[in-house]
Amino acid sequence: MTSDKFRLGVIFTHPTQHHGPLWRKLSQQPGLSLKVMYLSSENQSSGDPFLGGSAQPWDVDLLSGYPYEYLKDLSGNVPTQRRKTVISPGLISRLTPQNFDAIFMQSFVNYSYRLTALLCKLRGLPLIMQNDASMMSDGRYGRLRLIAMAILYPWMNNLADYWLSCGDHNEIHLRHYGVPDAKIVRGCHPVDGERFKQTIGQNQAEIKQIRQRLAWDENTVIYGFAGKYIHRKNPFEFIDAIAKAHRRDPRIRGVMLGGGELEGEINQRLARLQGEVLNLGFLNQAKIPLYYAAMDGFVSTSWIDPHPLVISEAMASGCPPILSDRCGNWGYNDTVQHRYNGLVYPCGNVDALASAMLEMAEAETRQRYRQRSKEVFDGQDLECEVNAFLEVIDRIKHDRRKQASEVELGVSPGAANAAPMKSTLTDLSNPIDEANYQ
Fold first, then answer.
1. What is the pLDDT of residue 416?
2. CA gap 266, 52 in Å, rounded
3. Domains, the chain, ranges and CATH?
């Protein structure tokens, strides 16, 4: 390395409410120099397209406190939305050993990520990766696709020198597709819990007002659903379970936050009910912590969701979770631990979800899960992810010292990283497509 600081380059699709605070905190670490290169300006100039026409650019700071730049595509412009086919030619001049000591990116989902992997291998730059894929998320693929993945993924995944895992199911996925334990460092998906806690602490009066608007009376038990109104998020299961649970316990009510292609159909379904579920529509980032804090429980019904961060957001706000077993963030050492800080139900079983809602409606149970959810989240906040990055950086430094010693002793350094690499610019069956998971 040519400077006293370790120079980490980050290639990322767009600014997000979850990773912006992570880059800020990493930039504060002594001995680390960070530079983030964004492939688009999504969330700054426009809202998330999956949230429908009411979506707006995020209203929280995503860019201060760390160095960044937007990369132009082949047309010479900065894309305003993520695109799989985007190629940023500026990567060729920027990703060099003279500029960086290692590179981080999420996946191989777009062509610029694949160009990044190619440049790292050709130029000897260590590549660090992280995504939220799980075996459950692979369930959406057909047999031929799974066969292709079984062949391609072990080779592709091992283009990375290190992987930051984000949970139990994610680690199973990485090992299944050929990543050795020596390459895996446990981290988490970042959520800025400090912002959530500060917002809640400073706005107690507004939280009380929100709850009064959402509740029938002081005894109402409010369950929330937040996210895109799309098929894989399975919003109708939430509605049906609330209706069933309400018939057995009239205190129970549901609140939905979000937007998307199913909103019209959702509103039609709700019109046939008697107010058991409210659709509040799109809500921007600054206010979301207040609504979580006004709820008694949070529900994720997805039938495919690798590691939904809304669960962590709710837990940071003191809102205990119920989630389907098709979400990838439950496990013995994961975000939701069944009957410890929340409940897991079999996806597709509306009766089981309604029963879980009834169980958590008991005040003592809910309070126990609420307290434990806060404790679990505190071990999975930004510091967890920062520490994972720092551990990988220490390993890279150790590897380089070892290689330098081998050269001094006249020993040829290990050739494990010298295997020829095929171009990653081809489609490769659109691997690890987190673009639909954001």
1. 44
2. 13
3. 6-191+381-418 (3.40.50.2000), 194-378 (3.40.50.2000)
